[in-house]
Write a structure and sequence with these properties.
The complex is a heterodimer. By secondary structure, chain A is mostly helical. Chain A has helices at 15-37, 41-49, 54-85, 95-130, 138-157, 185-213, 226-258, 271-305, 312-325, 341-353, 355-369, 378-400, 403-409, 413-443, 449-475, 491-520, 562-573, 593-609, 613-631, 642-668; strands at 585-588, 637-640. Chain A contains 20 helices and two strands. Helices cover 32% and strands 23% of the residues of chain B. Chain B folds into two domains: 19-97, Helix Hairpins (Orthogonal Bundle), CATH 1.10.287.90; 111-261, Immunoglobulin-like. The longest helix of chain B is centred in the N-terminal third of the chain and has 34 residues, at 19-52. Classes of the chains: A mainly alpha, B alpha+beta.
Chain lengths: 669, 284
């Protein structure tokens, strides 16, 4: 009846995960109970869970990402503290538990921290920047989000029911084959990633369609804000790369469930093929994450320098060059498997070439600041912190791309330091920059600057300490994924890196405090004008938060920096544009399809993990019925009357006019 | 920093004890210096630009419309391109000269050592001498060693940090690695690819000894009597760790090739869910 699932799946003998899981479950249940008792459930259901508004979905992606980043960081704390005590001793985490932690850390940070954060920012900002009312397929967008959440849920269920993969964040065969990993851990990995991977692919299709087909009148490709360009490149990469991952993991599923031999090293199977396929997705994935972050930095640095982005067209070229090159470098992940001098040499060079467009971007950001009026806000600090630290990550990346250097550094702590250096510097700093930058647009009030800056300084200091030590440990020959060690030379650096993680933790606390403090002081942090940073692209033309339809009339775009042009004209003439002729607007109806689909997908995943075949079939049927019901719907849109549109828009216009005159008077004085 | 570079560290890859490691450390240092020459000025410029052009500085000239310069773009694309051209040449030459399969320059005939990664031990076979050792690698100093490597079950990676170049061990496949120790000494090797619960204990002493001492060691091993055949290999391949190195006085002919061809059954591997897995001892 319940497949492999028995009471023994709950690790009663392992207090650490059990207590952690119980605490998390209690918090979740507590929040749900509070929501129900306080009567917020109808509001949440109506305004958020079933929402197909790209702004709401974007915000939910970011909230999911923030929660998962904290979850992934708690794994990091466990690993650092284990290493601090595991010198010539077993430490407090036995290998079978420690191995799950480093696997979960990677999976959660990449798939459920970094990915949703970037997709959330793109979802939120891209339609606004393009001057349109929503993404191309609003309901599909909701499906994408909830499938991602479903994957995240499965990974976290593994904490208390069964176990997680003990193979690392990329489950390399033969270790991940059923012979060597007979438990449910790898299955949790596979089904969680398959389900969320479908969500990611759909989201990629959605955003690419939006960018290619739905821009405001006059917004040609070379007038799009840089963030839209990087979003385009990133989502094209998602469309090209994620099917590879899905197919590869499907083959591993066939190996494990039906005794196939794709990757088994016997009966014609070959484990190295997994390596090829996985990294054919895995390296583009790095740029799927990094490119939107580059876009965020482009927006932030330009806005807070009070200047257009330097060499915009050059930046577009660099972005698209990275997009193409990212598919040509995957083999550098296994220089040390003995491919030979020619193969290694070719992939060394292609890998290094990526540093050229990336270097161009760094220099162009530098010259964006040159001659500017730089405002050192929190978002700008994250961007500067990125520029200063990321060049080190880039340089060590080029270093690792030199095969003879990789022969002594591969799989070492140096490698760990390198990819954290690029991922944390680019993606995490980019995520925080974007979060601080667009938060007022999403919620109508700014985040507290003092706590934001504190979070930045603690965060970056801790980060430099931890990964500085890791670089050095790599040169001292320390390899990754060790549960304990007996080399005295490593110990001081491991202890210092543990201290660094404490500093990072303080940064995280500041980040959380910032949110709480800002919500409590929201009235004094209110963004009335909709343009708190003196922005340059169209999202700042809307009110904060924007109305559900974003723009009362689609803006006409006459050049790069669409909103800056509108604003400059208004400042010169001391008046706003003519009021548009208001027309009724049709917007898509909310739909629970995404939520219900994800519910059934979670059932399918859980059932497949535990071999509960009837439940998997029932889940599949449920998901299919949901799809049919959705496809059969009669009304798809509702109409917002012209008078309502006019009312909303006039409110925004009047605050802007006030701001314009206020600024005019200040200038005159 | 300098005292840390002394020769007392067992794994420091910058303090190599063989020609391969030395050449690799050399490339590592040269490439680092070249890149520091670019990234350090960039880092400084970032901070300087941000501070000089800060809003509160009245002396900085505001040029709100300055957004392109062909000359700067030329420099901006050329500098990374030239750097990468230079480093790319180093990488191309290095990838060939230091390819693990390339034999080393030496007057001496290379010693062949066959390596099998087990769960979680290292098996070294010396086909010429007909002896084998587990968890201890003994090689003559100043003699090139040609390793041929495979695995009994899951992937591992063989690495002696002070000698240079690591290489993967994979079931059903053979990789080749050429290394040499310059002088006699006690080194350490380890696995650098995660292979399951006992992975952290997969390190082993490497003894580079004089030719005479090596001959003595071979004799001692030959005298130990134990034979490494399919049965004792199967026993050895079971997951677990050893308390002390072992040696075998003779080897069943064709054993290594049988392991590679998988006519000798593969090791059972690190199976077993959760608590049933063999727990390695804490430290050693």
């Amino acid at each position: 009846m319940l497949g492999k699932l028995t009471l023994s799946a709950i690790p009663l003998d392992q207090p650490v995960p059990l207590v952690a899981g119980a605490v998390v479950a209690l918090i979740v249940l507590g929040v749900i109970a509070w929501v129900v008792i306080a009567g917020h459930l109808p509001y949440l259901w109506r305004e958020w869970i079933t929402s197909v508004d790209h702004k709401r979905i974007g915000a939910m992606y970011c909230i999911l990402a923030l929660v998962m980043l904290i979850r992934g960081f708690s794994d990091a704390i466990l690993m650092r503290s284990q290493h601090a005590v595991a010198y010539k001793a077993g430490g407090y985490l036995p290998p079978e538990h420690y191995d799950q932690i480093f696997s979960a850390h990677g999976v959660i940070m990449i798939f459920f921290g970094a990915m949703p954060f970037m997709i959330g920012l793109m979802n939120f900002a891209v339609p606004l920047q393009l001057g349109v009312r929503d993404v191309a397929f609003p309901t599909l967008n909701s499906v994408s989000f909830w499938l991602t959440a479903s994957g995240a849920l499965l990974v976290n269920v593994s904490l208390v029911v069964g176990e997680f993969a003990r193979t690392g964040w990329w489950p390399a065969p033969p270790l991940s084959e059923v012979t060597y990993s007979p438990g449910v851990g790898v299955d949790y990995y596979l089904w969680a990633i398959q389900i969320s991977g479908v969500g990611t692919l759909l989201s990629g299709v959605n955003l690419v369609t939006t960018i290619l087909k739905m821009r405001a009148p006059g917004m040609s490709y070379l007038r799009m804000p840089m963030f839209c360009w990087t979003a385009l490149a990133s989502n094209l990469l998602i469309i090209a790369a994620f099917p590879i991952l899905t197919a590869t993991l499907a083959m591993l599923i066939l190996d494990r469930y039906l005794g196939f031999h794709f990757f088994t090293d016997s009966h014609g199977g070959n484990s190295m093929m997994f390596m090829n396929l996985f990294w054919a997705w895995g390296h583009p994935e790095v740029y799927i994450l990094a490119l939107p972050a580059y876009g965020v930095f482009s927006e932030v640095i330009s806005t807070f320098s009070g200047k257009p982005l330097f060499a915009y067209r050059s930046m577009v070229m660099a972005t698209m060059a990275i997009f193409i090159l990212s598919f040509m470098v995957w083999l550098h992940h296994f220089f040390t498997m003995g491919p030979g001098g020619d193969v290694n040499g070719v992939f060394a060079i292609t890998s290094m070439i990526i540093a050229v467009p990336t270097g161009v971007k760094i220099f162009d950001w530098l010259f964006t600041m040159y001659g500017g009026r730089v405002r050192l806000t929190t978002a700008m600090l994250w961007s500067l912190g990125f520029m200063v630290t990321f060049v080190v990550g880039g340089a060590t990346g080029v270093l690792l791309a030199i095969p003879p250097a990789d022969f002594v550094l591969h799989n070492s702590m140096f490698l760990v330091a390198h990819f954290h250096n690029v991922m944390v510097s680019a993606v995490l700093f980019g995520a925080f920059a974007g979060y601080t930058y667009w938060f007022p647009k999403a919620f109508g009030f700014r985040l507290d600057e003092w706590w934001g800056k504190a979070a930045f300084w603690f965060g970056i200091t801790g980060f430099v300490i931890v990964f500085g030590c890791f670089y050095w440990l790599g040169l001292l020959g320390m390899t990754r994924r060790m549960q304990h060690y007996d080399v005295a030379d490593w110990r001081p650096w491991i202890l210092i890196s543990a201290f660094g993680v404490v500093v990072m933790f303080v940064g995280l606390v500041c980040q959380v405090v910032q949110l709480v403090v800002s919500i409590r002081r929201r009235d004094s942090l209110r963004d009335v004008t909709g343009d708190p940073w003196d922005g340059r692209s169209l999202e700042w033309a809307t009110a904060s938060p924007p109305p559900v339809f974003n723009f009362a009339a689609l803006p006409e775009v006459h050049g790069e920096e669409a909103y800056w042009a509108i604003k400059s004209r208004a400042r010169e003439q001391m008046r706003l544009r003519e009021e548009p002729a208001y027309e009724p607007i049709e917007m898509p109806l909310n739909s629970p399809t995404g939520f219900i689909c994800a519910f059934f997908s979670t059932l399918i995943g859980f059932a497949m993990i535990w071999y509960i075949w009837w439940l998997a079939a029932a889940g599949f049927l449920g998901a299919f019925v949901t799809f049919v019901v959705f496809a059969w719907r009669d009304t798809v849109e509702y109409e917002i009357p012209a008078s309502e549109v006019a009312k909303v828009n006039r409110a925004n216009r009047s605050t802007r006019l006030e701001a314009l005159h206020g600024a005019g008077q200040r200038r005159a004085a | 920093m300098l005292p840390l570079l002394c020769g007392c560290q067992q794994h420091n890859i910058l303090d190599a004890k063989g020609p391969v490691g030395a050449a690799e450390a050399n490339i590592l240092i040269i490439a680092t210096i070249i890149m520091l020459a670019i990234i350090v000025p960039t880092m400084i410029a970032t901070v300087v630009f941000a501070l000089w052009y800060r809003e509160a500085n009245p002396r900085a000239r505001y040029r709100p419309d300055w957004a392109f310069s062909g000359r700067i773009e030329l420099v901006v694309w050329s500098v990374p391109l030239l750097t990468i051209t230079f480093l790319g040449a180093i990488a191309w030459i290095g990838a060939h000269r230091l390819d693990p399969a390339t034999p080393l320059d030496s007057d001496k005939k290379p010693l062949e050592v066959q390596v099998v990664s087990l769960d979680w031990k290292w098996l070294f076979l010396y086909p010429e001498a007909g002896v084998a050792s587990v968890n201890e690698l003994v090689v003559p100093a100043a003699t090139p060693v040609r390793f041929r490597l495979t695995s009994s079950s899951v992937w591992n990676s063989f690495f002696v940090p002070k000698l240079g170049s690591m290489i993967y061990t994979m079931r059903g496949m053979v990789t080749t690695l050429n290394l040499m120790a310059d002088q006699e000494g006690e080194l350490r090797g380890l696995s650098t690819h995660f292979s399951g619960d006992g992975f952290s204990d997969m390190h082993f002493p490497v003894r580079a000894v004089s030719d005479a001492a090596f001959a003595d060691w071979v004799k001692g091993a030959q005298g130990s009597g134990a034979t490494l055949d399919r049965a004792s290999y199967a026993e050895l391949a079971k997951p677990g760790t050893l308390d002390a190195p072992r040696s075998f006085g003779s080897i069943e002919p064709g054993l290594f090739d049988g392991i590679v061809a998988q006519t000798v059954p593969p090791g059972p591997g690190p199976g077993g869910s959760g608590v049933e897995g063999v727990r390695p001892k804490g430290g050693s």
